[in-house]
Amino acid sequence: MNRISRFASCAFGFSCALALLAVLGGCASKPEIVPSKGPRQPTLASQVKIYEEQPQKYELLGSVMVTREEGAKWDERSNANAAFDNALAKAAAVGANGLLIGANPGEYDARVTVGYHGKFYQVPVRGRPPVGMFQAIYVLKE
């Protein structure tokens, strides 16, 4: 075996090993929802982070829904800034430090792509006119 083929073989094996570790590591750490420790003190909407995926460990504080009257509609650029601002404020009111974009299967009719200051998310909605659905969470570990 010449030097080039030994190097290629080693590099390929190393890449495969890294890929396998990444896959195994991802499977080993499923998100954990822990029981709430009771009511939390309200936070500020500016302290609430938007999560598209479940963090590693968190408390579920409750559902947050935003109606059309509260801004669940988008502008000419497909941003729904008022809806997100309202959802963040509602989550902060129950002591959340996170707003999880999501709902359980069967609780929503569709997902719509809407932006918040130019960043786009797939938000679950239900009904007509649509109601945006989120989860207020308290993140213990990202």
Would you mind describing this structure in some detail?
It is a single chain. This protein is of the alpha/beta class. The chain folds into two domains: 1-30; 32-141, no CATH class. Helix content is 27%, strand content 32%. The chain contains two helices and seven strands; from the N terminus they run αβββαββββ. The chain has helices at residues 3-28, 81-93; strands spanning 32-34, 49-51, 57-66, 98-101, 110-116, 119-126, 131-141. Strands 1, 2, 3, 4, 5, 6 and 7 form a seven-stranded mixed beta sheet that branches. A hairpin with a 4-residue loop joins strand 6 (119-126) and strand 7. It is globular.
Residue share in β-strands: 25-35%
Class by alpha and beta content: alpha/beta
Averaging pLDDT over every residue, what do you get? 84
Distance between the termini: 47 Å
- What's the shape? globular
Query: Element order, helices and strands?
Result: HEEEHEEEE
How many strand elements? 7
Helix content: 25-40%
Total count of domains: 2
Radius of gyration: 20 Å
Q: What's the arrangement of secondary structure elements?
A:
Elements: H1 3-28, E1 32-34, E2 49-51, E3 57-66, H2 81-93, E4 98-101, E5 110-116, E6 119-126, E7 131-141
Parallel strand pairs: 1-3, 2-4
Antiparallel strand pairs: 3-7, 4-7, 5-6, 6-7
What are the defining features of this structure?
7-stranded mixed sheet, alpha/beta, 32% strand, 2 domains, 142 residues
In a nutshell, what does this entry contain?
By secondary structure, the chain is of the alpha/beta class. The chain has two helices and seven strands, in the order αβββαββββ.
